[in-house]
TrEMBL record:
Belongs to the metallo-dependent hydrolases superfamily. NagA family. One of its GO terms (molecular function) is N-acetylglucosamine-6-phosphate deacetylase activity. Gene3D superfamilies: Metal-dependent hydrolases (3.20.20.140), Urease, subunit C, domain 1 (2.30.40.10). It is an enzyme of class 3 (hydrolase). The keyword Metal-binding applies. Its EC number is 3.5.1.25. Residues 58-380 form the Amidohydrolase-related domain. This is N-acetylglucosamine-6-phosphate deacetylase. Keywords: Carbohydrate metabolism, Hydrolase, Metal-binding.
Length: 383
C-alpha cells in the first residue's frame, strides 16, 4: 500500500520543515518534498491513500529501548501478553520496541528470551529483548525481586545467550558485581548493547565499564547514585563521554523536569527517552505485578508495597514523554530526536528514525499539542 501525507510540519532529527509531504511504498519512504510539488511529481500512484495533515506534526515512529508491558499485560508473561501490551504502545506512536525483562531465575528468563526471539523473527517491529535483570546490585534493585538477582557467571551467560537466538539486543549490568566487567565484553561481542544500571558504581568504575564496551546508561538518575559535587557518580561519567547514550524516563515523576532539561543540554543527541512502562501503562489505576512483585498504581504512579515505597516502572507512553519533555523547555527537535534517531543509533539501525527517502515508513501524525492521531509502521496503519 502507498500513503501520501501532505501539508504537515515535519519534525525529526534533521529539523522542522513546514508544508512537508512524504510518500511511502513497500514499507519505506520513497519520496519527500514541500508544498504542492507532489501533485506534479509523477511519483504518486493513482490508488495512493492521500492524507491531508495541515496543522499537524509528522514525526518518525518512536523507538522504545525499555518497556516491560502495557494495557494490563506484562512482557514477562509470554507471547500473547507481549503482543497485547505492544498494541497499547503502538497506538501511542511507538512503532519499534525492545522487550524488557525483569529479574527472574535463569530458566524463566531463557523461556522469555526464546518467546521474544520467535516474535521478533516474524514481527520486524519487535527489535529484540533486553535483560534488565538479573545482573543488578542488590542495594539498587528497584522493583526487581532480590531473590532472583545474580552474578554473571560464564554458565548463566551461555544459557541466556543461547536462548536468545541472537535477538538479545540489550542487557543492563551493575559493573561492581563479580565478573561484570568481563561480562560486558562478552555481551558486547555477542552484539548486545550493554547498559550500566541498577548500580552503586562511582565515576571511575562507570568509566571502566564504558571502556569495556558499555554504551548506554539505564534510566539515568534512577536506581543509581545521583550527581554530587564531590561524588560525581555514573551519571557524570555518562554525560562526560561522547560514546554514551543516557536513557531518561520523562514522566515528570522519575526525573524532575528541570533535571530532564539539564540532561538534554549536557548531552545533546545522546538522550534516549524510554518509557520503562509496566503493565499499567494505558490502563487504569489498581493492583498489578512487575515480575513476581505486587505493584500498586495510584494517579498513574506505580510503587512497590514497601514500607518506604519504591517506584516500580512507569505508566508512561512515548507520546506523553514527548509532551513532558517539550513542557520542560526542551526544543521539540531534540525531544523527537531522543524518541527516534538516537535510539535507532544506539541499536545500530540506520534504516530507522528519520523522515527521508530510504528510511522505514514509520510515521506518527500528532496535533499541534502533540496528541497522536495516526500511526503507520513499515507503511501500514497501526492507528
Ligand atoms: Zn530498572
Amino acid at each position: 500500500m502507498t500513503v501520501l501525507v501532505h501539508g504537515a510540519r515535519k519534525l525529526d532529527a534533521d529539523g522542522v520543515v513546514d508544508d512537508f509531504w512524504l510518500l511511502t511504498g513497500d514499507g519505506t519512504i520513497t519520496a519527500t518534498g514541500t508544498g504542492d510539488s507532489w501533485r506534479a511529481s509523477g511519483v504518486v500512484p493513482a490508488d495512493a491513500e492521500i492524507v491531508d495533515a495541515t496543522g499537524d506534526w509528522l514525526t518518525p515512529g518512536f523507538i522504545d529501548l525499555h518497556a516491560h508491558g502495557g494495557g494490563g499485560h506484562s512482557f514477562d508473561d509470554g507471547a500473547d501478553a507481549i503482543r497485547a501490551g505492544l498494541a497499547v504502545h503502538r497506538a501511542h506512536g511507538t512503532t519499534r520496541s525492545v522487550i524488557s525483562l525483569v529479574a527472574n531465575p535463569p530458566h524463566v528468563l531463557a523461556a522469555s528470551l526464546d518467546a521474544i526471539a520467535r516474535i521478533a523473527a516474524d514481527d520486524p517491529l519487535v527489535l529484540g529483548s533486553h535483560l534488565e535483570g538479573p545482573f543488578l546490585a542488590p542495594s539498587r534493585k528497584g522493583a526487581h525481586d532480590p531473590d532472583f538477582l545474580g552474578v554473571p557467571t560464564h554458565h548463566v551467560l551461555k544459557q541466556l545467550l543461547e536462548a536468545s537466538e541472537g535477538r538479545l539486543v540489550q542487557v543492563t549490568i551493575a559493573p561492581e558485581l563479580p565478573g561484570a566487567l568481563e561480562a560486558i565484553g562478552t555481551f558486547a561481542s555477542a552484539g548486545a548493547v550493554v547498559a550500566v544500571g541498577h548500580t552503586d558504581a562511582g565515576l571511575d568504575l562507570a568509566r571502566e565499564a564504558f571502556d569495556r564496551g558499555a554504551t548506554l546508561l539505564t534510566h539515568a538518575f534512577n536506581a543509581m547514585p545521583g550527581i554530587h559535587h564531590r561524588e560525581p557518580g555514573p551519571v557524570t561519567a555518562a554525560l562526560d563521554d561522547p560514546r554514551i547514550t543516557l536513557e531518561l524516563i520523562a514522566d515528570g515523576v522519575h526525573v524532575h523536569p528541570a533535571v530532564l532539561a539539564l540532561a538534554f543540554a549536557a548531552a545533546p543527541g545522546r538522550i534516549a527517552l524510554v518509557t520503562d512502562a509496566m503493565a499499567a501503562a494505558g490502563a487504569p489505576d489498581g493492583e498489578y505485578h512487575l515480575g513476581s512483585l505486587p505493584v500498586t498504581v495510584r494517579d498513574g504512579v506505580a510503587t512497590l508495597a514497601d514500607a518506604a515505597p519504591t517506584i516500580a516502572g512507569s505508566t508512561l507512553t512515548q507520546d506523553a514523554a514527548l509532551r513532558t519533555t517539550v513542557a520542560a523547555g526542551v526544543d521539540p527537535v531534540a525531544a523527537v530526536t531522543a524518541l527516534t534517531a538516537t535510539p535507532a543509533r544506539v541499536l545500530d539501525r540506520p534504516d530507522l528514525g528519520r523522515l527521508a527517502p530510504g528510511y522505514a515508513a514509520d510515521l506518527v501524525l500528532l496535533t499541534a499539542t502533540f496528541d497522536v492521531t495516526h500511526v503507520w509502521a513499515a507503511g501500514r496503519p497501526l492507528r
